[in-house]
Amino acid sequence: MNTARLRDRVAASDPGLLRLAAGLRTVGAIALTLVVLGVLGVSVPHLVAGAIAAMVATFAIREKQRAPQAVTLALGLPVAAASLSLGALLSSRVLAGDLFFVALIFCAVYGRRFGDRGTALGLIGFQVYFVSLFVGATVSGLPELYGVLGVAFLCSAAARFLLVPETPAGLLERLREAFRARLAQLVSAQLELLDAGPEEIDEALKDVREGTARLHETALMIQGRLEEGTADEAAARLVQRRIADAEIAAERLGLLLLSARSAERADTLTLHLPGAPAPRTGPMPGRDEAMARVRRDLEALRLLVLRPVAARSSTALSQIRNRLLGYREEENLPPAPPAVQDVFRGVGEAARAVLGLRIALDGPQDESDDSPATARSREELDAEDAVIDAGEEDGGTQEELTGLRRPTTRAAVQVAVGSSLAIVGGEFLSSQRWYWAVLTCWIVFLNTASTGEILVKGYRRLVGTVLGVLAGIVLAGVVGQHTWTAFALVLVLVFAMFYTAPLSYTLMSFFVTAALGLLYTLLHTYSLSVLVLRVEETALGAACGVIAAAFVLPVRTDRRTNDLLVTVLERLDEVTEAAVDQLSGGSSEELLDRARDLDQALADLRAATQPLTHPITPLRARRDTARYVVALLETCAYHARSLAATAELLPTHPSIAADPRLRRAGRRIGENIAAIAAHVADERSTARVETGPSIASLLESEVPGTPRFGRVTDRVLRHVQRLDETLVGLARPLDVPVAAPRR
User: Fold this and answer.
1) Is residue 518 within 8 Å of residue 479, measured between CB atoms?
2) CB within 8 Å of 523: residues ≥ 6 apart
3) Could you write out the DSSP letters of every residue in 99-112?
4) Contact 328/316 with Cβ under 8 angstroms?
5) Among the ranges given (33-42, 203-212, 289-298), the one the predictor scored with the smallest mean pLDDT
6) What is the DSSP string of 359-371?
7) What is the pTM of this model?
């Protein structure tokens, strides 16, 4: 049991074990290279060159399939050899060497437009040229360095394909386990929310909010790996559907719990806005009996998530599953206020989502202990599975940017200008180690697209470097001239660097700088002045990068976030329009892929707003506005995903059917999204957001005696209503005019 819990915690903290695998693969490649080169008796500078080359050859490869990885690695070797040769040939020709370095940097960044392979080859070319400068490569030493490169690339291949192999199917399986573990953690956080007192409610809500975000993050990672990790396209779509169902059910359960504890229905925004206070809460109605039963059922739900009900499982688990699924059909609902009964229904829906996820991932299960409610849930799932086909995605058309408008071209020009400044300034600081400034300038441009992102990344690298210098001083003093002890510590630091890279750029910079301090020791060039120079060159490189980004073909943070915001609104409109149209009786369309596009666009926007929401920003009001806008958009995305999931149930669910009157509500929502997008794209737009009667009133029948809502469920109405209200709320922080209700 302890082993299982530890495995679940590791899976939840590192989805797919991506960070662990990256760290082990890189360390394995470096260690194997050092062992082989040590047996061959090469010099310490060549050991250092081999270690860095092995690291570069390992982390530069980004393709997901093994065959393309092998091709890129094979092409990387001649690229590395050519770069190393030119570095050695031009080492004594200062002007020619500097000009070539700038040209190499331009080509390496421009190569990103050719996909993962172009990015990898550019990275290998740049980093190996840097290695030639770092170890002082000469023309006479090239033959031996060629051998070192060959060993490094072969050891990188051995680590990638033999020591720490990774297949798309295996990675997808680990991501599924991570989703299951994070789903269980979210249910645990919801249990704490249920039990939290007035002083603990905000902290408990924070845990639920973080758990919801982490579950969504894992769902996005799975969606990004489905095509490569699943041979059968229909099976991939089924898993995608079940993952979406489980995510929506878990988030809805959190909202229902919060609503049951508050005086009024909780706002979805509460689960997406960091720091949002919990609504006014009190004891759950019927506290002694209802709360104990809710707690028991949440613990049972967590048990179902962690332990599947399979053929070899106990009858007790089957009984638990049957009881929870019975809530979906109003079976055994306790006498309690409506908000509390909604919680039990939410638990039933979550149990149904877990059942569907288990069937999709593990195949058919034993049905001998099924209750009638469980059997009906299985029938619904089977009917849904039958209508999921391998429909082709709408490829669409996208405007092709050309010339300096193309992001890769613009970035290449910016990096070339920034690197030129870094070379000139770096040589004023040191004629021997000027390349550190160029390296920093290069790095701050990686995976950034606006001036604000580059500024934040440069700041984080500088902080990490200063702290790493202090650590390097201590480690260098402890290690002295013990070569293999220093290499062992370098391996530890490299692993830590790759393991923490996705979590904190500052930590990654700290570990890489501490490792460089040890490498300086091995090359007999360690001194306090060298490490101080490292900080100075880093600051200079970051400054040159920011200057180039700010004055050479600049992309302002506001402009980038506005462009991404318009994209999010367009994707939101596509999902909502298609879902409402289908719920209104329109033709069936592919909604899951559109919802995935919306989630990806929102993730891009969230990353682009980091400079605006960074703790060091002095513009507090702007930071709060950016957080609020992103939270509102996440709320809209949740309701849109829920509508899409409900719309796909139309062919199979007995209690959900199309209602043409929904088109009225959908029309207003679409017009409001268009108005907000138009205003964001052009502040001079005269478009206005319209308010008016509630969605329920829009569905009033014009024929006397007709049932008010027909066969449209209350849940659909709630999602449409909340989406409509959230869009009106989104207009205010974006300064979009809100028109008075039309009479």
Assistant:
1) yes
2) 44, 45, 48, 135
3) HHHHHHHHHHHHGG
4) no
5) 289-298
6) HHHH-----TT--
7) 0.81
